[in-house]
Amino acid sequence: MHAYRSHSCAALTSADVGDTVRLSGWVHRVRDHGGVLFIDLRDHYGITQVLCDPDSPVFAEVEKVRSEWCIRIDGTVKARDASLVNAKIPTGEIEVFVRDLEVLGTSAELPLMVFGDQEYPEETRLSYRYLDLRREKMQDNMKMRSDVVASIRKRMWDRDFREYQTPIITASSPEGARDFLVPSRLHPGKFYALPQAPQQFKQLLMVSGFDKYFQIAPCFRDEDPRADRSPTDFYQLDLEMSFVTQQDVFDTIAPVLAGVFEEFGGGKNVDAPETWEQISYRDAALWYGSDKPDLRNPIKMQVVSDHFAGSGFAIFAKLLEQDGTEIRAIPAPGGGSRKFCDRMNAYAQKEGLPGMGYIFWRDQGEGMEAAGPLAKNIGPERTEAIRQQLGLGVGDAAFFLGGKPKTFEAIAGRARNVIGEELKLVDENRFAFAWIVDFPIYEQDAETGKIDFEHNPFSMPQGGMEALQGDPLDVLGFQYDLACNGYELVSGAIRNHRPEIMFKAFEIAGYDESEVRKRFGGMVNAFQYGAPPHGGCAAGIDRIVMLLAGEQNIREVILFPMNQRAEDLMMDAPSEPTSDQLMELGLRIIPQD
Questions:
Q1: Average pLDDT estimate for 220-238
Q2: Could you tell me which of 172, 258, 153 has the C-alpha nearest to residue 215?
Q3: pTM
Q4: Nearest partner of 254 among 229, 237, 230, 266, judged by Cα
Q5: What would the mean pLDDT of 124-129 be, rounded to a whole number?
């Protein structure tokens, strides 16, 4: 017999009754039923119930074991009484009578329990992550993550992609976040960087003649943490293709992701790729207040400025006299009560706004009545016009925000989400996808008037060089994101592979050719030697698994994550270097005041 096990703790069935077996695992829990000891023995695969009574030669030793001790047992498989069968586990028809025991590893007093669903502080969970990972939910999440990655790889190979590995130590290259710098011992005073993404290398692969590339790539960004973003490193499905249009990229990645969500989505409805909307960046901001809208929520915001211009509601009327301002409405089907409207008004105040105006419609017996302060101020005609535009009726409401869109769009988007959730309008049994397209390349600083890049500077402008001859604020890029249930899952672009167009694009933002060559010399030089049109995208692995696992925090699907302060509490990182290390690298630490 094997030194540690003949079977896993999920393998035994009624067909094994009478056999002598050997199992190894952790003591999940111990129960004493009148002198008969029952142990749920757990390994990576499942749980087997083992029992021991005073007739066992090792009863005294079994009495000593405690939760999370690692043990090996030999015993005889017995059938459970029919009334005691546990249909919830694969081994629920049997139990094993213990005849021999070996303690492989004892456990100190536990800082957190593995058995049960108790909640523990993040600091405790991350300091003792190896114990946290023993919990069933965490084991399931990590197995799902591994299976998702394997499925993605197979699906990419099936679409004629090959996986290539790009460097981990490279040159600093601004990708929209801060680099992690790595000092060079051989070149004192110089630094490598960990790649924020394989962006330049995958484009260089296209110049090198590799037609289709993908990689499950580690990426490193020194970012502030969020619930859906790791502050240090993350993994993405990175892909690039030559001789493709934007639609070709969509047609490639969409079936891969849809297939993964169908495979691991727990039976939730997955929108078919051919139905995924393509929404312009500006429309997404207008309708949803976000470039990653949750389309499970049917609420779509609308501009209602005409109904308030010159109206009796002085706040909005005067606001609209200023350039660049507008009034937007958030329809709220089913939200037609003063209590709900007051609650949402309080929400807006908590978000830093003076409040949200509202109108709600109620049945007064003799017909429908519009209620609320706004209805009284603007009168019945304007109120009725708003109702008809928004398609609302009795029992519904609408909320209103005004100003320059960029000052309130984000809050309006969050309010839309809250309204949808509170009114139970969100389809919780669906994964809803949408492509966000037509991102503007440039933006203008309101104070200085300076033009700078608003989004990816390496995207091909729609219209090429000709588009760069007009108003920069009208220039759109072949850049796109894929949103799912309120999260950005994919970001990508058709690349600007023409040096003359790239130089012009950077010139508009105030960067001359010498600066571009200095920052991106490797890629610019390569583009001089017959670069093909190419494009691609990257999909966040961690975020995909977070959605599939139904988690709200990305740390629940990462094996060893950092905390909110970008610290590894288990390994005590970041740590102070030794004097010898600093001396070898020619570095010294300047104390911060």
A1: 89
A2: 153
A3: 0.93
A4: 237
A5: 96
